[in-house]
Amino acid sequence: MVPVRTHLDCYPCFVRQAVAAARLAGADAVAQQHAVRSALELLGEVDGGLEPPRIADQVHRVLRAELGDGDPYLAYKEASTSAALELYPWLTERVTTAPDPLAAAVRVAIAGNIIDAGPTDDVPTVADLWAATQRVLAAPLAIDHLAALRAELERAPWVLYLADNAGETVFDRVLIETLRLPVTYAVKSGPTLNDATRTDAFAAGLGTTARVMEIGCDAPGVSLDMCSSEFRRVFASAPLVLAKGQANYESLSDAGPRVFSLLQVKCPVIAADIGAPVGGVVVRRAVPAPELVEV
Fold it and tell me: Is the dihedral of CA 177, 108, 277, 140 positive or negative?
């Protein structure tokens, strides 16, 4: 597989995340400066040929160690999940009353991708999430492989669903409940940014909707060589994979035709790579054949 590579424009985003993590951890000004300087030192030494999630993983490991906080985004995740759950009844009503419930549910799941502490550390409010959902429901798909996804869903006996962020999990739940297929919902094995963990998935109500499993690592995206052998076996055997968000796209953009990326394009780097504008709503099938994965 050939993942998305890091561009020069990614580095200001890594630095912004360092500042945000330090502030979210409640560090004082001196501790904030020390943490950010440590992140800058790492960025000066890291292999720029790596894909962005791998560099983000290294940055946030340094930050968690420097700040003495294993989960600086905890309050962000809890607030995002709470806001999304407040919207959940409305989301399910929009889907169940839609002329095409599957298409509506896919768009609802993509609308949830607006919850992302990577580009901004502002916690989305219920009003923000409502507005994002209205926009995504009405917007044309910038990349539209929905018909192919629909066909694969009709054939697949089960689905592997790669989670992205806490709070977004509630929007994923709406899609999973619409699929009426067995779903394995894969989450991080530990905190990184605002990515969903098992705790976040259960807080969103996914414990009764899907089989929740950990991928065996706590890095952003899904870098298979970093994941557990159990997860690699599940990934290799999955007839259909739904990959939510930019980091999963960056890791799996060329992972093969059984992988569909569902996301909103949030930065020029991804826009250029995927061929859709910033703000674009994407259902993209990865076409190249996947490499064999050792298990």
Answer: positive
Q: Is 22 left (phi over 0), alpha (psi -120 to 50) or beta?
A: alpha
At 232 the pLDDT is 97
Q: Which residue has the tokens 């076996």?
A: 233
Helix (H, G, I), strand (E, B) or coil at 95: helix
Q: Which of 22, 28, 33 is nearest to 67 (CA)?
A: 22
Is-contact 183 132, C-beta < 8 A? no
For residue 13, the SS3 value is: helix
Q: Check: CB of residue 14 under 8 Å from CB of residue 40.
A: no
Model-wide pTM > 0.85: yes
At 74, list the tokens: 């905890």
Considering the domain delimited by 74-285, tell me its CATH architecture.
3-Layer(aba) Sandwich (3.40)
At 233 the three-state DSSP class reads helix
Q: How far is it, in rounded angstroms, from Cα 119 to Cα 27? A: 21
Tens of pLDDT, residue by residue over 17-38, are: 888 888 887 888 888 888 888 8
Element (H, E) at 211: strand 211-214
> What residue spans define the domains of the chain?
10-67, 74-285
